[in-house]
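Q: Hi! New to this. If I give you a protein sequence and the SMILES for zinc ion, can you show me the bound structure?
A: Yes, paste them in.
Q: Okay, here:
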Amino acid sequence: MGQTGQGSVGIGRVLASRSAARSSSAKFRIALAELDSGAGYLSYLVNEANSAQTYFYFDLVYLPVPSGTIRTSDNAATEPPRLFLPRIDDFLRPLPRQLAVDMVCILTRCLIGGFRLDGTIFGNHFCAALTNEPKVFAVSTYQMRGYADKAGVSFLKSILFLCIGMILVGQTRLDFHDDTVGCPLDRCERSRDEIVEGLKRMRFDHEPCRREIDADMRDAIDSLLSLPLSGHHKTI
Ligand SMILES: [Zn+2]
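A: Thanks. Here is the predicted structure of the protein with zinc ion bound:
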């Protein structure tokens, strides 16, 4: 189908970020898939993340935005844009196979909506996976620049923090928790502002979560959360 040889149409892959040796030695391969976040310097983020550790290998791809993806209300000026994941489920679900990776992280400027396991609808999440498919998840950059500023971390770092929470949920038995303790697994459902606690702390030291994962993954997450990623802080 596609000219990338990955069986996908119109998906641009940043080959410059690929290092075959590092990629093959990694335990998990994760595609960072830019949809419409407009976040700059993603190749910088990917290269820094790959240099800091070898457990995860990050790759950067650019996805075409399927028509009708973004739901805006009549009050577009006051209502935030929303991406309702089930609307593009058919497009997203095959991506891990098409891109030959273990997980795909979609980056969007929209708030994220979808169905909970009990069938109810959510519409304002920072991040969420497809229904019954933890390998494909979306991370929202909506208001993240402001939250990152409040926490004193770079915007790219805040994206990586959200991504790590979803990787933990997708690759371990862990899940988000209701307590807000400055952990990447804080659910922040009472108030989105609670994300600032985790961004400020920028550590994975919440013992009930930390003890559930193996040492290699812990070390890699510690290395990722220690990255300054502030090389472009003033310009993004
Ligand atoms: Zn935790």
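A: The first strand starts at residue 12 and ends at 13. Let me know if you'd like me to explain how to read the tokens.
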